[in-house]
Design brief:
With 143 residues, the protein is an all-alpha fold. It has one domain. It has four helices and no strands.
Length: 143
Amino acid sequence: MTLTTPALLFPAISLLLLAYTNRFLVLAQLIRKLAQEERNQHQETNTRQIMLLRRRISLTKRMQLAGVFSFLLCTLSMFALFLSLELMGMVLFGVSLVTLSVSLIYSLWEIQISTNALNVQLQDVEDQLRTGKSQGGKRGGDA
């Protein structure tokens, strides 16, 4: 294995960490918005969304930690290869790939929860539309 093998992961891991950071920022914005809505009016949908957001934040933290750890191990692997410690470099690179895979699994899990959160929101909108149509229909009949 050469020094360039683990170096190939550097751009991928960097982009992955950037994507994770963007996800975290979006989650933070959603939490702030939901907290403001909750202060103004309590809704069951907000409670469910807050629970899902808490799980997503936890998973995002875990996937970021695994991604950073993978990046660190990849760096250490390159350093070991630089020092001609090929076996150690290969082991560190292998562990780096495993932690990168763990990070991606957490990402998939977070995406699943995100999809569920969107479905909760869509269900709420559909319920409001149904309620609005049924009230609008009654009002039209009363007039």
